[in-house]
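Lab meeting minutes (informal)
Scribe: AK
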Amino acid sequence: MNPSEEQALRDMVARLENAWNSADSASWANLFADDADFIHILGVHYNGRASIEAGHRAIWSTIYKGSQAGYRVEKIRTIGRDAAVIFVVGELTFFDNGVERHIKARPTLTVQKRNESWQIVAFQNTLVAEAMTAADKESLVDRHPFKAADDAANQQRS
């Protein structure tokens, strides 16, 4: 992969971070292909850009309202001329009743060049549990609207 293509992928990750920190679900979702797959930190599977957008809009108005994310590209692995896997380290700060909480995750993005632009076709977000305190884990699982999000994701597939 040439340096300009690699920079385009790093810029994509920076746009994801900016969209998260702005709670801009439309900008977040626009980085994904129409038929993208997204598995969030607790394992819910969203299919399609509209479902990904709705899920992020929901979390940014609930558990992750006011949260801030930081993404660092760890590695880019090309898998052909028009596809790559981007390994990212992510750190998230969110608030639980005024108490600051922290999550570390390892998002893996599979991207494909379609119509001369890169799009995310699959996103798998894996929680780094040992990097969290027990209170942060409890808050995440107890407060995350994953059951409602799972229902919404399933409705999008119907």
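Next up, CB showed the second protein from the same session:
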Amino acid sequence: MSVGGALLNLFFPPKCPFCGAVLSRQGICGDCRRMLPWTQETERERTLPGGARCASPLFYEDMVRDGILRFKFSGNAAAAEPLGGLIAECAAERFPGEFDTVSWVPVSARRLRRRGYDQARLLAEAACRRWDTRPRPLLRKVADNPAQSGLEGASARRANVLGVYEAADGVSGRRILLIDDIVTTGSTLGEAVRVLRDAGAAEVVCATAAAARLRPEKPCEGHGKNT
């Protein structure tokens, strides 16, 4: 460790992103690792609207939800390092050899000014440090739409993100790993993937730190024992 890094750890010691326990190095404490709601083999990957695949190591609930909310809204930017490490492990496991470029789903300029950082970019940079590379800014957010978390239903979420992204230069022919913090209905990632594909991306796969559990679909009305 460099002298600068040692001093930084002395005054701002690394902490577990979920419980806040002080650690000797960046990571997740042993107790939290045992208690986290890890996705299992059959749950780790899902299909987004539009057909792209998305992998996530954790479910977005309980301590994971609390940790990611602190990361996004309470200035806990240091959580990007361990969370990005989890994304890197998951993406390497699920998509070996399927991407040659890493990018992220950007926030709007307004939210970037308010928050001070783009949490998805920090996650992408942390993941890329495991691979000794850097992410590329392949998307721009051109509209400051309402937060997805305030909307009910997949159709409302899909409508809310239509047209809010545009592709940057350099997308054509690339096989892209697109990173975000969480996936719920998949509307945001699905729209971002569509924009990249329309710009000529050869392939797009996605990874997030956490995923909302998929709810079983309710049976259609009138479908029952008498049919």
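CB comment: Residues 80-94 form the longest helix (15 residues).
No objections, moving on.
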